[in-house]
Amino acid sequence: MPQRLIRKLEHFVRLSGGDKLALQGLAQKVRAVGAHEDIIREGDNPLHVNLILEGWACRYKQLADGRRQIISFFVPGDLCDPHVFVLRQMDHSIGSLTPLRFAQIPREALLGVTDRHPRITRALWWETLVTAAVQREWTVNIGQRSALERMAHLLCELFIRLRCVGLSEGNSCPLPVTQTELADATGLTSVHVNRTLQEMRSAGLIVLRSKTLTIPDPAALQKVALFDADYLHLEHEGAHLDANEPEELPNGSTPGTSGAAWTHGGGGSGTQHG
Amino acid sequence: MPQRLIRKLEHFVRLSGGDKLALQGLAQKVRAVGAHEDIIREGDNPLHVNLILEGWACRYKQLADGRRQIISFFVPGDLCDPHVFVLRQMDHSIGSLTPLRFAQIPREALLGVTDRHPRITRALWWETLVTAAVQREWTVNIGQRSALERMAHLLCELFIRLRCVGLSEGNSCPLPVTQTELADATGLTSVHVNRTLQEMRSAGLIVLRSKTLTIPDPAALQKVALFDADYLHLEHEGAHLDANEPEELPNGSTPGTSGAAWTHGGGGSGTQHG
DNA sequence: ACACGGATTTCACACAGGTGAATGCGCGGA
DNA sequence: TCCGCGCATTCACCTGTGTGAAATCCGTGT
Which parts of this chain are annotated as the region Disordered (chains A, B) (predicted)? Predict the structure, then answer.
């Protein structure tokens, strides 16, 4: 049941009933693994595309001496590299962060669906390009932002991505990762991540308890993060994402209300050099 | 004359005469700009794909307060985002670093060629995926490596990429960027880039004079960089890249010889956590 | 209820890399 | 040949983040 994926893709294209049915069909072979297991290892020859159904995973790479960088987070609805087949072998690993359920989609199944459903093709393109944009933003994040800004930025991104697949509730969302993992993702140490989170807490920027993140004042957090959601390329083709997207959770619970806007800032100009 | 692009793509697929001709046809509208000019600005609606013919450019993003991160370098033969059309607007800018000649390829021209030439489609896929892999490696580089390792890694990457398009000569290649630009790319300050380069020089790792980089002992540089070329996904489909690729420069000059190997290391294993 | 173990928190201290500014070099233009 | 200017280089000093280790906390299983 790739509900999350469908929900996410509909931010970009309107899918027909047939499109959705076709997407449903992709999640045949479902696998489950515990936390902290590898799904694909660097050097492996990828055989299928993985679709995250439940739980979190990450893409990571480890240097010869053990230092590890988490390159991206995968949350439900995320597709790991729809097009890896072109390359011979993986240049990074993908591992679970929490217990995980995911679908292994065979290459042919994916090709079959995209052949017959141009809207899905377009939507997967969008997903691919957004993934690339996120990767670029991470480069900026790690390269230029201070620890505080960096953590804030990461949390903004994760919150929005989760909200897009219906996993937020009001200003809260799950954050089922350890501080060590946040450290590996931001290029900081776990000690400093801790300091930084404390600082954010005492500034009232976040509430973080029992793996749940709450953002009392989104505008404030965005501000310290220098966050601009444009790179996520939401609001497209009619599926206009309201600042405060109505949350129809699958189980029908009522979402908390949030007056704060997650603005998609106007285009900055900025001349190069001078 | 997209010779560089063709040469690069042939590292992955064997192109027929017809394929090459089709690629030639893409570079109709050629533009030239001086150094430090923007080609595309963040927020723009991209109208064509740009193919770098001569000179260097970069993708960059600037924070509200002026900090700038160079997200990737473009060298001759590089294609800027073959698939941007799917998205509505640019989330970053592309600017020249040196005087630049580039071809503006209209969307339709590209689509026409890929429709009729499946090998080109495959090759462009490869190019796209390698670009993504490079982006991921930059995340690792900035997130985990020390200044020295980081600079070394960047130089290794640039050298290999230039060699792939026939722009190296023996162990040397052009490096027409300022230390400030290297700083923006590595997330360091120009002062510290200077220190780092000095250190590399006095360790005999590099020779860098008048915008020309020479790597006396590639193995040594790779070692301090913890560099593993796997992520560039060379050596594919028969087009076996020898460790010391024969350099048939277009102008027929004889390349310097280099016994040193730019090894494509065997698959590391590495269990997650333990 | 208890005990275990991973996760968080705190501490004292070290250092890589940042800051701001001054100096000097090299190269293109007239 | 000289000038001017951007770039590289150097300096003295500072600080954000890393290090290593110890001390708690907390959730989970028994």
Answer: 242-274
